[in-house]
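Issue: copy button drops trailing tokens. Both records pasted manually instead:
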Amino acid sequence: MWVFSTAGCRWLGAAGSLAVTLGGWAAGTLPVRGGWGLWEPRGSTPTVAGAILAYLGLTLLVAAWWQYGRLLRAGADGRVGVTLGWWAAPLLLAPPLYSADVYSYIAQGAMVLEGHDVYGAGPSVLAPGELGHDAAASVGGHWTDTPAPYGPVFLVLAQAVVKLTGGSVVPAVLGMRLVALGALALIVWAVRGLSDGRPGALWLAALNPLLLVHVVGGLHNDGLMIGLMLGGVLLAVRGRWVAGSVLVGLAVMVKSPAAVALLFVGIIVARRCGGGVRGALKGLLPGVVAAGVAALATVAAGTGFGWLRTQSVAGTIHTALSVTSDLGLGLGLLVADDPEPVKAVVQQAGLVVAVGIIAVLGWRAWKGRLDPTLGLGMSLVALVVLSPMVQPWYLLWGMCGIAAAGAWDGVWGRCLAVASAGLVYETAPSGHTPAYGFALMAVAAVAAAVLLRRDTLPRTEPGGGRAHGTAPAQAPAPPVPAPRRSRAGGRRTGTGA
């Protein structure tokens, strides 16, 4: 059927994206004030109808994406870049979707312009008449009095958007969406370069509904961090490690988890020098370059070095997706009157385990047993899983790296595709996390897992015979081509194994 072709998927996904946008105009994360009469609540009936439309559109988008991946595995010529344009375009004029974080970004940029200490106070300090006051009114409750956990590079961008738009909510949101589109372009460039142009890599990384709704629709700065980080890795792989280290340093000055990339960029540099003591010493240089970039960016931005002390503020907010927070809270309720100390110990233990996993993956990459880009992606997934605060879009940190390494159709890539299909439902278009969101997440993930398993098992006739076109049970395995040498001196596994 036409609808199951790549062209049909392109149209189906675009229709889904349009429905998400139209539903978002009634049920999105609308501003409390300053919506210009466009992005404003319109009563309970339109809100419910808009939410239903957005969920239906999201389901169409996920279904189109999943079928698109099946076609790419079968060797179809997907023209992923064209499809990405079709699916992203309807989201450009949408209000903020699935999160109120963009209002924090705008308010924090305004705080810098108004002379407030963005690392010492939250958006609530913005008084009536100051730039960003309307945006501050729409900041989520947890973040109203929370200092910014972001680096000065991102705050400079937010400051520029506020200055150009006068802090008006609608133009400022659209300005931040231009930043998000730039981030998407960086991701596409980096993933395409690192994966040697594999369409499947872009399918998992850039075409993923989890990225589209949370980076383009939700405007999360995680997209910018990922784009700069992977761009730096790409330049390092191509032998331009100084420029690559600069990009990674800029990524760290957006969000600090990008610092993990410095380990693997250092390994790329060290292995290019032949390893040994000399290689190990040279492998430290990317960290030195990135530290210099961080210092210069901080001084140039004029925001101070307060970002060094605010990196843990997000961990104080409990999110149900954090395994260590849930486990720590449960243990704390069982063994103590105050569960918070026990919870903190478990959270710290999770981070220690994550560091250990990253060290092991780094060692394997150093020994040439693991592609550095794949090692970076796996490390960031481990960091997210064991982090004290986890949001659905955090999975993109490592998933884009795994896709870029060419492992989009391996064990890791398939597991992350299933997780993406589920996590995209966890948050409502309004930015809230309702109980039914977890139910929808579970149903979508199970459905994706069943479909994936069905696709990977040989089909059989009703009478027990093998379906036409499937291989006999004892058919010899095709010859396995020798793994090609990666440009970093290791081997590309392509499977995540």
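Record 2 (pasted manually too):
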Amino acid sequence: MTSWADPALEQQLLSLRVDRQEHIAEVTLLGPGRGNAMGPDFWRELPLVFRELDSDPEVRAVVLTGSGDNFSYGLDLPAMMGAWEEMLAPGATAEPRTRLLRVIRELQAAVSAVADCRTPVVAAVHGWCVGGGVDLIAAADVRVASTDARFSVREVRVAVVADLGSLQRLAGIVGEGHLRELALTGGDIDAARAERIGLVNDVHPDGAAALDAARALARRIADNPPLVVRGVKEVLDLDRGPRVEAGLRHVSTWNAAFLSSDDLAEAVRAFGERRAPRFTGR
């Protein structure tokens, strides 16, 4: 077990738990939103935790998992919308749109902290992995799942162009055709389909077995020379990194300009009223 560079950070964590033992760190999503939904605490803590792990030479591999019955339901809309309401209001002027651009890029940076971590990250997925959850596992190096895992790039169904990395990172994982199907339909896929298209490497009988498999893979990585492992990851990321960064900047600018719409407002209302949205293209 290693100590934190910032011991106060460990005590302040609300949405994540970090356990470290024998060169492996395990990061667990805790919520507090239902289904480990990603609220303000999560977005604040995620980059701090992964920068801490990146800087710790004793950590040679990271396992990323979720607590409870699901990996993550994605963005915690009720928790986040209060701070975003003015920025997303129809007819928002340049100043709130500029703030929205900054907010989107901050969230992007939080997810990119996982991808940019020089220490390999293995994600273990069980239950639902939706929207921001897919963004998060796309930033990991390797993914495994349980048979009950379900995945969805859900953003298009709530009138949003996915802007936190799925559109930029998944093409290199599942291929362009599968990505376009997932992103344009917002449909759900099960673990068997996820394995066939390469979103996950292996599927295991249940969440505990998937987590054990992720830990075993992390152990195999951690047993290799740590500087060489980091070198392998840096070389593999050489071509992808600039392309992902350019794509993230483009989609953040797009959403700062066009996210506010009648269809987005309708999606939020329909979510709150638990009904199907009626989109008009305005």
